[in-house]
Amino acid sequence: MASRLNAIQKDAEATKEALSHQLLEFQSQAQENHNVIHAQLSELVDYIHRGSADKKGESGSRGLQQPSNVQVSASSERTPTFDQRVEMAQRHIVHTVLDADANRDLFARQDAAERDRERRRREARALKRRRRD
Q: Where do Basic residues bias regions lie (predicted)?
């Protein structure tokens, strides 16, 4: 009974650890997305301000300039789309469940082996007692 309880506790701890890892990954991805959006918004604001400055004649004959979004587009290529992130999360969840199932099978085999060892010990003790008597 105690070994079963330990197995359940280990399974719960493994699940907790996996969920914590998923949460950290999600937070990291959210921060990266925030940074990309912030960079894009900054570029847009700069573009708008340059346009209004040109209209007032403050920036000479440059005219409206397109924002330099080479860096932003490169980082947005690395950033997966929402659908890709959903698919990645689903795959991660499936792998977590499969790992938990594999661990459950391992724990079941370990419990069975422990019960078998304990049974053999009891039988050996009983045999010793019979020999002494």
A: 118-133
